[in-house]
Design goal:
The chain has 16 helices and 10 strands. With about 425 residues, it is α+β, with helices and mostly antiparallel strands. The longest helix is centred in the first third of the chain and has 42 residues.
Amino acid sequence: MRYELMVGLRYTRARRRNRFVGVNSAVSMIGIALGVWALIVILSVMNGLQKEVRTRILGVAAHVQVLGPAGRLADWREVARLAAGQPHVLAAAPFVEAQAMLSSGRTVRAGTVRGILPAEEERVAELARHMRGTSLDALAPGEFRVVLGADLARSLGALPGDKVALIAPQGLVTPAGVVPRLKQFTVAGTFEAGFQEADGRLALVHLDDARALYRFGEDVTGVRLKLDDLFAARDVARELQPKLPPQATATDWTRSNAAFFHAVELEKRVMFIILALIILVAAINIVSTLAVAVSDRQADIAILCTMGANPGSVVRIFMVQGMVIGVIGVAVGLAAGVLTALNIDVIVPAIENAFRFKIFAKDVYLIPDLPSELQGGDVAAVVLMALVLSFLATLYPSWRAARVNPAEALRYE
């Protein structure tokens, strides 16, 4: 294919008789480059979003949770012992979790109260690194202290040392009727996990204080497990289920947040399809570019054929010319996409500062910053797709070139 390659590259560099060919070639290159660039950047952002949210969720949630029937588990130590015998399980911690209304002054907010054992909780979650001005050790039994999510504390106007009333939904039956059960807690500090659902709703108290507030006695809501491999959570939950007490259930983080992660995955696929249309349109431009080039080069094709070039050689010549457009566009888009994806943490703040607006609002997108994770598999898929579309776009014009009749092409030359 040496001379076909040489002629095809020469046609690419040669001065064109028809300016449309040059303009359309440039448009095709730019279109392919833009498509490849956009796809690499968007897929990297979607990967980063998925990873970042997963990390933030698992910072306050558990890899696996064992829940008792009707939200109450009697013998949590036995369950923790059974769980500890499973592969991948590193630690277990009991918890009590229930809904409550939190009141500070005239402000009332709905929230989720989680009762924990500080020493055990630090082994299954990463809350310690999210604490602001306090630690989990401040939650001592019987002292009724609470650590609030940063957004929840801000909405309540509660500062460390302030009193916050926790109102349980279960009421007390008195001769005067049902009276809400409430308890005053002292704010020990706040935490900020960077996850809106936790920062805006979660309140941490000691396990014994939560038991007293919700009248759990010695029961708990369930047991939280930490694994050495978060992607083994589904298998661990499935293997642990038959060993649990009757009606107790084991659920993993993929089920608890399945709707969100499925939505992200679906959005990633849809964005891939939509942005691939940019590359498809650019590839269609290659068809028109080569069609005009074939029309302009009919005399050259006829001369090549009279010199002994077979139809296959003519096809390869124009395929080379079309693929050069595709390869240059893919190369430019690949370089721009990789550079953008690797520096998104610098580019996005610069755009936000220049135009004075926030691209990622924390209360809408769960996280405050635009993340990015460049994955080789995604880059390879984008590049391969762009090259295949460019190759397919060369087939029809090249086939038409091979069907040129030398006698007809040279009649008026």
